[in-house]
Amino acid sequence: MTSVEGESLERQAWIALAHVVEPGDRQVGRLVLSEGPRAVVDRIVDGTTGLRHQGALAARLDSVALFAAEERAASCQARIVTRADREWPSQLDDLGEAAPYALWVAGAANLRLAALRSVAMVGARACTGYGEEVARCWAAELAGEGWAIVSGGAFGIDAAAHRGALAADGMTGCVLAGGVDVPYPRAHDALIARIADDGLVVSESPMGESVRRQRFLTRNRVIAALTRATVVVEAAERSGTMATAQAATAMNRPLFAVPGPVTSPASAGCHRMIRDAQAVLVGSVDEILGMLDLGRPEGGGHGRRSERDALTVVERRVLDALPGRRAVDPQEASRLAGLAAEDTWAALGVLEAAGWVTHEPGGWRLAPGRA
Question: Model confidence over 233-260: pLDDT tens digits?
Answer without folding.
Answer: 999 888 889 989 999 999 999 999 999 9
